[in-house]
Amino acid sequence: MRAVVRRRYGGPERLEVADVHEPVPGAGEVVVRVATSAVNAADAFMLRGEPRIARAAFGIGRPSQPVLGRDIAGTVTAVGEGVTDLALGDRIHGESDAAWAEFAVLPAQAAARIPRGIDLVQAAALPLPGVTAMQALRMGLAGAAASDRDLTPLDGRKVLVTGASGNVGLLAVAIAAAHGARVTGTASTARLGLVQQAGAEHVADRLHPGVDYGVGFDLIVDLTGHRTLADLMTRLAPRGTLVSSTGAGGRTLGPLPRIAAVGARDLATRRHLRVLAARRDGADLAALGRLVRDGRVTPIIDGVMPMSAAADAVRRFEAGQAHGRIILDATRLG
Ligand SMILES: NC(=O)c1ccc[n+]([C@@H]2O[C@H](COP(=O)([O-])OP(=O)(O)OC[C@H]3O[C@@H](n4cnc5c(N)ncnc54)[C@H](OP(=O)(O)O)[C@@H]3O)[C@@H](O)[C@H]2O)c1
């Protein structure tokens, strides 16, 4: 099959379309004929092999997995042993480790059926960032059970999302606003309108010196790690929660220093400081799919590009030019 691969770490120039073996489903997995995918921060990090410490998992000298991409939407073509809730021909979306290809394999529990009325462009916009946003918001609800997908306690809460114009941020704003939260989002000047479109009540221009983000937040979802923890903590309500969910940081250690700082500060305050490690979860994705189906959340799409132009798509993403999700059309992989 055709796939977008890279044999070495580096920039988008490393990406090429090549023939690779079709995946075979293992126990608990399904194979999907990919219709659409999307570009994530994780794809850019994995392309470059950054932070370098992550190469311990992704391949020290060169990437152990040549195919990039995580979000997928498409049709099930093969089902592994033990999979009972998905069948051949089902239209599903979810998160794979190798999505930029004609076929992709993923754990059945990381997938959800695409609700009627949601097209394959919208469906590919949701998995990784949507599930991350759901889990970040839930983590911020004091007292909510880990398995509780009900975000209604967000009603009336004051929520700050930093990096609100990004993939996770736009969905976090939209999901929180759909549940009645009063959301402030930070972004660069050119993308403030997007954050408003997603449902933010207030926006703050991160490029404007001296801009006031506000105070008294019940929940801060920090997606950038660029404000100091001390600054963010002064903006929390006395029993508020800060959820740190950023992969950004230095090129060697990435977010590790920030993660350590969040843990240390949490021990010394009555406020709650948490680090999110999002996990694939088809049930969270299904819950988000219902919000989209019911018109309560609308993913914002930058545009659709041929998957064969994945290098240009990553360039656009890394240059901060995307206004919403960049979708890749896997039927154009020639
Ligand atoms: N915890 C987890 O398990 C998990 C899961 C998924 C993603 N993540 C991480 O969460 C972060 C957000 O992911 P994403 O996919 O939404 O990334 P994204 O689409 O790149 O969004 C990040 C946003 O940060 C803003 N930004 C860029 N440079 C900045 C700076 N110097 N100061 C302040 N803001 C800046 C950008 O918006 P403006 O330029 O408009 O401000 C950008 O839209 C990434 O670091 C990703 O690795 C973590």
Automatic annotation (TrEMBL):
Q: Name the CDD domains on file.
A: MDR_like_2 (cd05289)
Domain of life (superkingdom): Bacteria
Entry-linked InterPro entries? ADH-like_N (IPR013154), ER (IPR020843), GroES-like_sf (IPR011032), Lipid_raft_assoc_Zn_ADH (IPR052585), NAD(P)-bd_dom_sf (IPR036291)
Where would I find the Enoyl reductase (ER) domain in this sequence?
Answer: 10-328
Q: Which GO terms fall under molecular function for this chain's record?
A: oxidoreductase activity
Q: By its UniProt entry, which Pfam families does this protein fall under?
A: ADH_N, ADH_zinc_N_2
Q: What protein name does the entry list?
A: NADP-dependent oxidoreductase
Species this chain originates from:
Agromyces intestinalis
